[in-house]
Amino acid sequence: MKSYLKIAGLGLGALIAAWSSTALAADVKPSPDVESSGKLSVANTLDYAPFEYLDADGRQVGIIVELAGEVAKLVGAELDIQRTPFPSMIPGLASGRFKIAWETFSANPDRLKQVDFVMFIKAGIAASTSPEKKDSFAGDMPLCGKRVGVSAGSASDFLVDKLSKDCTDKGQAEITKSVFNSSTDIVQAVLSDRVDARMDDATSSSYFEVTSKGQLVVLPTLYDIAPLGLAIAKDDKATADMMVAALAELFKNGKYQEILNKYGMGAYAIKEPYFVNNMDSLRAD
Question: What is 2-121+228-281's CATH superfamily?
């Protein structure tokens, strides 16, 4: 009898746990678009390791891919990643071609005129170069006179313009900027000496330092440390509420930290996801 009660108790406990999990998931209300289509459609480059990329077997992997997969489970939908070039994402949201562009966007006034954001991680921007060139990046303005590769339309793209102006304002040589559509293309440009350095967010730079097995090193100067987020169409409250609630659940149940830790990015976690529709909404952490 005691044995039976013990087993029954375990069964009841499992049922309660399952009910609690369902109840928590039920709190994440899918947007009308997700509910009608049965799909969580996300625009993504699939070319920005460690956030999203194709592995050796062609599978979609990375931090954002895994987080999006967990969100899809919470809203009872199939994940549909629509491969999209980065420069097309904000115009695509503004024109209604898709509802979510999940990359590591930084918020700025120009972008906030067209889209809103849900912040889910933080990072700065860093430059990386080959080991033999590392010592040539010295002083308070290490990029002056250098050839620097950036992703088109990224925060790094705009930052290099600003840093180059700072160089010339102080009588130093300007930065020669090269724009690429693929982060892997910039890595190859550094390795083949077509540019001296690549400029990217610190998380991605750290990842490529590890995966390049010593062919790239990250320079110590960090620029523009800030929260980063996914983008949604302006004033799309239903999608914003769904994404904030779903990510909050992943923060709460430990999946968020688990996924970041898996890719060596645990240090870039923020305290909670939050909605941003103007610059005053941004938080320090």
Answer: Periplasmic binding protein-like II (3.40.190.10)
